[in-house]
């Protein structure tokens, strides 16, 4: 996990302190929070309201485009996890946003160039920029902390999973996190771990939820038919026992 180093000078985002434990605490405290309205601009310099992404789960990654170490690695890790998630859950099952928090350099054009450098297709992945005041408020809402340093910025390496109603569901930490750390919360939201089984689609999604599993050897998600074999074997065992009990009962009746 990449966290802020204690003892950094007080060149932080306004209202925060240079302490790794506090940064992590602030991040975790954001889980369950419904995001307020935030107005930004996309890579084509068009105005975008963050609320426009509601209706589907949303993945949010915070970067600064001049970064030559943590941010590109994080972006590639997120891209890999997003690819696995889309193959398992569906291309249109969730949305992805990268936000540039360096309000001086992270212009819409800089973000478009960053996306190109990282090999990201902006047709299904949005890059957003904002002014200093807007970014300060958004970062606080997301529980994201950063500090100005001689190298650029130190910041918490945080990828945020937001549900379809704009509520922060999970924070994922680190630049090289394991694929399931991002895909599993998305699976919860897309397939509905706790959704009511009141329709065929809901029942189908619940089956997909339990049968879509991560295979470390293939580094991919797959549909595991083993659960049906287990259910079938269990049902066969129950029927066999029931048949044996009925047969025994009939035999005893005939002897009586």
UniProtKB/TrEMBL annotation:
It comes from Paramagnetospirillum marisnigri. Signal peptide: none annotated. Coiled coil: none annotated. Disulfide bonds join 67-71. Keywords: Copper, Disulfide bond, Membrane, Metal-binding, Transmembrane, Transmembrane helix. GO terms for molecular function: metal ion binding. Belongs to the SCO1/2 family. Residues 29-202 form the Thioredoxin domain. InterPro entries: SCO1/SenC (IPR003782), Thioredoxin-like_sf (IPR036249), Thioredoxin_domain (IPR013766). This is Thioredoxin domain-containing protein. Cu cation binds at residues 67, 71, 155. The keyword Metal-binding applies. The chain crosses the membrane at residues 225-246. Gene3D superfamilies: Glutaredoxin (3.40.30.10). It comes from the Bacteria.
């Amino acid at each position: 996990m990449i966290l802020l180093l204690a003892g950094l000078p007080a060149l932080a985002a306004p209202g925060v302190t240079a302490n790794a434990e506090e940064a992590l605490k602030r991040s975790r405290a954001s889980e369950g929070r419904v995001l307020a309205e935030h107005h930004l601009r996309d890579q084509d310099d068009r105005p975008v309201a963050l609320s426009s992404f509601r209706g589907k789960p949303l993945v949010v990654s915070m970067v600064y485009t001049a970064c030559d170490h943590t941010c590109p690695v994080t972006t590639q890790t997120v891209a890999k996890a997003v690819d696995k998630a889309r193959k398992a859950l569906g291309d249109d099952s969730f949305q992805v946003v990268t936000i540039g928090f360096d309000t001086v350099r992270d212009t819409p054009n800089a973000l478009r160039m960053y996306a190109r450098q990282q090999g990201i297709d902006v047709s299904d992945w949005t890059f957003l920029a904002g002014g200093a005041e807007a970014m300060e408020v958004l970062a606080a809402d997301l529980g994201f902390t950063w500090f100005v340093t001689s190298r650029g910025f130190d910041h918490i390496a945080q990828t945020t999973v937001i549900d379809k109603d704009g509520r922060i569901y999970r924070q994922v930490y680190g630049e090289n996190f394991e694929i399931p750390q991002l895909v599993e919360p998305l699976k919860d939201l897309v397939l509905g771990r706790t959704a009511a089984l009141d329709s065929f689609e809901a029942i189908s999604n619940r089956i997909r939820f339990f049968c879509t599993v991560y295979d470390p050897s293939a580094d991919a998600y797959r549909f595991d038919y083993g659960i049906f074999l287990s259910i079938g074997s269990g049902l066969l065992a129950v029927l066999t026992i029931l048949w044996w009990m009925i047969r025994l009962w009939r035999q005893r009746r005939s002897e009586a």
